[in-house]
Amino acid sequence: MPVLEIKNLHKTFDQNEILKGIDLTVDKGEVVSIIGPSGSGKSTLLRCATLLETMTKGSMKYSDTQVVTEGSDGFSVYLPPKELTHVKAMFGLVFQNFNLFPHYSVLKNIIDAPISVQKRNKDEVIAEARQLLAKMGLADRENFYPYQLSGGQQQRVSIARALINNPQILFFDEPTSALDPELTGEILKVIRELAAMRMTMVIVTHEIEFAKNVSDRVIFMADGVIVEQGSPQQVIQNPQQERTRTFLANLNKK
Amino acid sequence: MPITNMILQLATGLLTSVNIFFLTLLFTFPFGLLVALVRMSKNPFASNIARIYISIMRGTPLMLQLLIVYFGPYYVFGWSLRNYPPFVAVIIAFVLNYSAYFAEIYRGGIASIPIGQYEAATVLGYSKQQTFFKIILPQVIKRIVPPITNEIITLVKDTSLAQVISVMEMFTIAKQIANAQSSMVALVVAGVFYYVFNFVVAVVMEQIEKKLDYYR
Predict the structure, then answer these.
(1) How many angstroms separate the CA atoms of B177 and B133, rounded?
(2) Which of A23, A40, A41, B71 has the fewest CB atoms inside 10 Å of its own CB, making it the most exposed?
(3) Which range of residues forms the domain containing residue B63?
């Protein structure tokens, strides 16, 4: 059964149509990478999926929960806000700039939302958070504040924060773009480990080599549409579309 | 008049000044925040009302505002001033005036918080209120301590304006003693009191700033 099912997603800002009818289905355990030039709409797609943007038209379903339906006029209709809060525990998002809360310790960054938003048991959440921190190699950092950590460590904390509610799917928005090159490796390693544990993930990335290695499926987007998708071998090694070839060729020139 | 007697009288006045100071702050912190939020609201009508309010409060003398708040009800509505102590008028006028300055400081602080903080909170499911009070406001407070310290120090000195509606605060008393004695000593002592008051304020604010230094 698919974890995420987006159908006919259109997103319009003012008069500009940024997304022009996207269909995206992600199965349980699948790792999907989205690549494409800047302005292609891949970040907007991720922001619509994580409820940071409101889709103009189209529908969206997380597992059994129909989050967005297409109204009779074609425009999107959302669940009431209270139910959306529950939906937000079904996914996690890792930002490019981490966006940790600077005034909270590492531990509090991870545990505050599950306790004060999802109303989970405090002791249980703390125990899970400590396990996650240990997995991220940050067991001795729970009382640190974000400014005391390196970029890579901060990003690992933010991954732990995204994982604390045991989400069914994890989204990454260019998770290594804000990191020094020598730190990207530690984040890619964490994502690889998650993939090995069959965590369902959607990754917007510029790391083509990484996308090739970690993904079950690669999606190439340009100008608000999915131009091409398939296995990494298909899309990256042997692209069928001219637009994809140009994009990959430009990358290789650098 | 022996000097101890004079100091005692001035100290009584200082107590009134301190009362004005603390009561003004007590109401200005929340009211200023409210004004800032209205000023930043998406509703253009509400936002413009707040904008005009701030503009008038900052654009006219506090002394004039004091007179209007105290005598306005009598001249405009013909209400008796008997049940309207000037001290109350001082607090109302000070809160109205200082809230305008505080509102702009809050607004600057709120605007300086990166959008990513809101986005992270939204994704994690925090409600609008939770996001503001748990995530945004604590960071705002840390950032606005220095400009707020400026305002608070000015407030200490502005308490002396209460003399224009005959509130018996320190400056009023100092002037009376000085007139009666044809001597500046009382004014100099009052000056020392104001300075010490502000010195304490500065030390306390520095401590608060240090306390908030545990993160960046």
Answers:
(1) 49
(2) A23
(3) 3-214
Chain mean position to CA A219? 14
User: Is the ipTM beyond the 0.90 threshold?
Assistant: yes
* B84: Cβ contacts below 8 Å, ≥ 6 apart: B70, B73
CATH of the domain at B169: 1.10.3720.10
Distance CA A61, CA A29 (A): 17
Residue among A62, A43, A151, A124 at smallest CA distance from A110:
A124
- Nearest-CA residue of chain B relative to A48? B123
A110 token code pair: 């991870």
Residue count of chain B, please give it: 216
Closest CA to A167 of A87, A110, A113: A87
- The two three-digit tokens of residue A184, written as one number: 């990207």
Closest partner CB to A145 (pick from B119, B134, B215): B215
Domain count, chain B: 1
Which amino acid is it at A185? G
Structure tokens at A216: 């079950």
Joined tokens for residue A252: 């290789």
pLDDT in tens, A184-238: 999 999 999 999 999 999 999 998 989 998 999 999 999 999 999 999 999 999 9
B116 in contact with A at a CB cutoff of 8 Å? yes
**Residue spans of alpha helices (H) in chain B:** 3-39, 44-59, 62-77, 86-111, 115-123, 128-130, 137-158, 170-181, 185-211
Region of A104 (left: φ > 0; alpha: ψ -120 to 50; beta: rest) is beta
- Other CB atoms within a 10 A radius of the CB of residue A242 amount to 9
- Check pLDDT > 90 for residue A72: no
B76 touches chain A (CB under 8 A): no
Length of chain A (residues)? 254
User: In this structure, are residues A209 and A236 in contact, taking their beta carbons and an 8 Å threshold?
Assistant: no
Question: How many whole angstroms separate alpha carbon B78 and alpha carbon A114?
Answer: 59
d(CA B76, CA A118): 55
What is the C-alpha to C-alpha distance for residues A216 and A31, in angstroms, rounded to an integer? 5
Which residues of chain B make contact with A50, given a CB cutoff of 8 A? Answer: 123
Tokens standing for residue B155: 């407030």
Q: Check CB contact under 8 Å for A88 and B127.
A: no
CA pair distance B188, B194, nearest whole angstrom: 10
